[in-house]
Amino acid sequence: MKFQFQSLADLVAMSGHGPYVWACYGIGLLVVAYLLITPVRQKSKFIRQLRRQYAHQAAANGRVDSAP
Amino acid sequence: MNWQWFHRLGSPRWFYQKTSVLLPWLTFFTLAILLVGSVWGLAFAPADFKQGNSYRIIFLHVPAAFLSLAGYYVMAIAGAVGLIWRMKLAFVVMRSAAVIGAALTFLALISGAIWGKPTWGSWWVWDARITSMLVLFFLYLGVIALQEAYQSETTANNTSAILTLVGTVNIPIIYKSVDWWFTLHQPATLKLTQASTIHPSMLYPLLTMVVGFYLFYALALILYTRAEILKRECRTKWVAELCGVDVNNKISRA
Predict the structure, then answer these.
(1) What residues make up the domain containing B148?
(2) Which of B117, B224, B254 faces A39 most closely, judged by CB atoms?
(3) For chain B, what is the domain count?
(4) Fewer CB atoms inside 10 A, N or C side of chain B?
(5) Is A63 on the interface with B (CB under 8 A)?
(6) Does residue B50 form part of some domain?
(7) Nearest Cα to B140, choosing from B103, B89, B193, B173?
(8) What is the pTM of this model?
(9) ipTM (interface pTM)
(10) pLDDT digits over B151-176, tens only?
């Protein structure tokens, strides 16, 4: 197994096919990143939301407790 | 036979807790294998004698296409399990599989189009394989859209599960399309029952990418399912504890 290109510039150019190949891998990277980041962000956003909600509830309960 | 494991599998809480342990490992191996496979395919596999370097798209295109089909089975089986056993978790998995499947089918179609330009001289042809893949893409989108179309969650789940099952008919058509019709698309490169029509120096990076994509699919499915589980179980004690809320304390104060 050996490196198939003369130089890095040669790897980028891929004897004229560079734009096609790199465009595919670029889109592939975007799709993979999107599918991993979206659910993680959804989850952390939801946990933040839920925490706020609980804090709000606790505060409301606290007011009831301190009322005469 | 002991069916306890099957019922436990249907428990969202059990699923969430088990996958928490698995996730760091799965993430590490998935990304490592995808990186190794991409570098191998892009820089170290020899160029194709007919297509030159453009063929390197195969290392992305074929695994994406594989998983868009395998993912349809996952979605269809999850839908069937949900319909038959009324399992909570199954519909969640079905919905997650629809989003991931749509994204991977999109990737297979677009990488195929970009590959087609230097190889066939055209971005798009209405060829049997490509058209049936486009139908697959619309089926995935249909399942996502149906989920949003109903107010009642039960109706939404049932309807999209039925659409999923009916759409299964498309899968063998996609597989066989390159044999049944005269087509521009090349026949299958990897075969289970016969020797593959590809040299080992290209086969190994391709298999690496296929394994990487299977792991990636599992990872994405688990992540989406976990996010969805939290939303559905937001009123339960274990989710509250997960958010760092001391439920007992809250109850005693209230």
Answers:
(1) 57-187+198-234
(2) B224
(3) 1
(4) N
(5) no
(6) no
(7) B103
(8) 0.89
(9) 0.87
(10) 888 899 999 999 999 999 898 888 88
